[in-house]
Amino acid sequence: MKKLLLILCLVLFLLPNVIKSQPLYYPPTSTTATWETIAPSSLGWCQTRIDNLYTFLEQQNTKGFIVLKDGKIVLEQYFGTFTNQSLWYWASAGKTITAFLVGKAQEENFLTLNDNTSTYLGQGWTSCTPTQENNIKIRNQLTMTSGLNDGVIDNHCTLSSCLEYLAIPGTRWAYHNAPYTLLEGVIQNATGQPINTYTQLKLKNPTGMTGSWVTVDFNNVYFSNVRSMARFGLLIQGNGVWNGTQLINSTYFNEMVNTSQNLNKSYGYLWWLNGKQSYMLPTTQIVFPGSYAPNAPSDMISGLGKDGQIVSLSQSRGLVFIRMGEAPSSGSSEITTIFCDQIWQKINELDCTLEINGQELNKIVIGPNPATNIISISNIESEKYSVEIFDMIGNSILKVSNQNTIDISSLASGIYLVNVQQGNQSQTQKLIKR
Questions:
Q1: What is the longest distance spanned by two Cα atoms in the chain?
Q2: Over 80: is that where the pLDDT of 110 sits?
Q3: Which of the residue ranges 13-22, 50-59, 338-347, 419-428 would you say has the lowest mean pLDDT?
Q4: Pick from 314, 312, 313, 431: which is nearest to 374 by CA?
Q5: Which residues make Cβ contacts (< 8 Å) with residue 347, sequence separation at least 6?
Q6: Is the peptide bond before 370 cis (omega within 30 degrees of 0)?
Q7: Among 56-65, 168-177, 256-265, 403-412, whose mean pLDDT is lowest?
Q8: Integer angstrom CA distances of residue 48 from 62, 114, 247, 343, 350
Q9: 8 A C-beta contact, residue 279 and residue 264
Q10: Which of 20, 83, 106, 344 is most deeply buried (CB count within 10 A of its CB)?
Q11: What's the rounded Cα separation, in Å, for the pair 227 and 327?
Q12: d(CA 182, CA 180)
């Protein structure tokens, strides 16, 4: 009988996920056309918890927020006088657009990542010796491994006097804005087109994005509305494909969203990667163990900018979220990894609470999911509980007591049910083992 109930539970549990796992929807490129929506309730999200999320975002000085599910708008909220047409800066989240444009320029044979930067900026763009300068490649600018000194008074400064030699390119990871900013000149000189023109042709026209690059002090900053940022996130969720058209070479795309060097495993080509074994942060050479956003899906990638500008997406969850606004209370550093993780935690909590025997029980959270070797179970409210893992036909595979970190490395790849028993209350969730 127990096996029969588990099989029924599996069928009922998987069915909504099958229904929700739809091909990506792409909104019309006309900004005046209607963008399709999906009801939060269809995802099991409670309005009270959505309201709690909005309260949190407002407290964190957010101006605009949007969540896409498989391309359709599931949440969209603006605060104060901000609207879906209001413009705001991407800050360093805009680095992700630059990464796209560099890949496009390489695809069109204007440059290669292994070209010397001096080929496009000319000799003397740094204060290094000619030999030192010629060792800096476009790839180093994309991966934050130029070897230039990020500890100068203003590491946004792009003057040659600010660009000092510190290490052999490729041997040191450091979040240094100036070498990144100079990629604008590389793109312009390689393609023979102003950066806004190239962005218009290769990105904005095909996707319906709006916005433009604006020079602010030394920086080249992209400004747009929230929905345009969401369009870009949707393009990345679709592996660089927009409505059936491949906008960026798939080989380059895969390089861009995976570890780009061995120093900071959580950094691709100007994209931040979750689920890696370690990560580094700006202004420090410390290598931190684990993922920078433990509450987010392990496959999550993000563009992170100053004051909490975020484009973040997970293909396994089919979600993209955008946050624009002023600095959150969790910090106003160059990138806000903590804030990104907090928003994912709030999204995880949108699922309605379960009511069993008249009592509310917070829904357990299993992560990472999909998983490879280890899973952790959170939101367990009882001191004494048991965790049992079943296969798809109801066979018990693994059982532990009072243990929220479980080794699943011995399990074969596939889909399992994880049942958590707390007294007379029980919850079951799907687990994908890679």
A1: 77
A2: yes
A3: 13-22
A4: 431
A5: 53, 67, 319, 321
A6: yes
A7: 403-412
A8: 19, 52, 39, 16, 9
A9: yes
A10: 344
A11: 20
A12: 5
Quote the pLDDT of residue 23. Answer: 87
Instruction: Output the six-digit token pair for 265.
Output: 């495993």
Cα four-point dihedral sign 271, 274, 279, 284: positive
By residue count, the chain amounts to 434
Tokens of 127: 């204060």
Q: For the ranges 358-372, 378-392, 398-412, which has the lowest average pLDDT?
A: 358-372
Q: What is the mean pLDDT of residues 169-175?
A: 98
Q: What is the mean pLDDT of residues 363-370?
A: 81
| Bridge partners of residue 432, in order along the sequence | 415
Burial 291-305 (b: 16+ CB within 10 A, else e): bbbbbbbbbbbbbbb
Is the CB of residue 388 less than 8 Å from the CB of residue 425? no
Q: Which of 257, 256, 254, 260 is nearest to 144 (CA)?
A: 260
Quickly list H helices, 148-269: 177-181, 183-191, 195-199, 205-207, 226-237, 250-256
Q: Which residue has the tokens 């949190």?
A: 56
What's the CA gap between 225 and 356, in Å, rounded?
Answer: 43
